[in-house]
Write a structure and sequence with these properties.
By secondary structure, this protein is α/β, with parallel strands linked by helices. It has four helices and five strands, in the order βαβαβαβαβ.
Length: 120
């Protein structure tokens, strides 16, 4: 799985900071990956940001808080459309596409506040 460094994400540091605050607030236990044109280098100014939310202990489960995150992203100060998707609801063939080129935006955090690792 070629995970890219976060510096490859086509998103300004200011907008990344806003995104990370929203992720920490609404889906703190999720592992969040960015994929698509803002990772692969094919983005333009109006490109959306595709995110996939992964449950840290069971990839077949939905991530709690994802609906609230979606609403918060829509009303945020981010100047681009951010589309969060649930890993648990995507077909396996799409999982392979994402795994081919992604950036980890946020790692799962356990109740103690430390990195909980992730399910692969």
């Amino acid at each position: 799985m070629p995970q890219r460094d976060l510096s490859c994400l086509d998103l300004s540091p200011r907008h990344l900071a806003i995104l990370r605050v929203l992720l920490a607030e609404h889906v703190p236990k999720a592992e969040v990956w960015a994929y698509g044109s803002r990772v692969t280098g094919g983005a333009h100014e109006g490109s959306d940001l595709d995110l996939v939310l992964r449950h840290p202990t069971d990839l077949t489960k939905d991530v709690p808080g994802w609906i609230e995150l979606s609403e918060a992203l829509q009303s945020s100060q981010l100047p681009i459309l951010v589309q969060p998707h649930l890993w648990s609801r995507l077909p396996a063939s799409f999982h392979r596409n994402i795994e081919a080129d992604y950036v980890v935006v946020s790692s799962a955090v356990d109740d103690s506040g430390s990195d909980a690792g992730s399910v692969r």
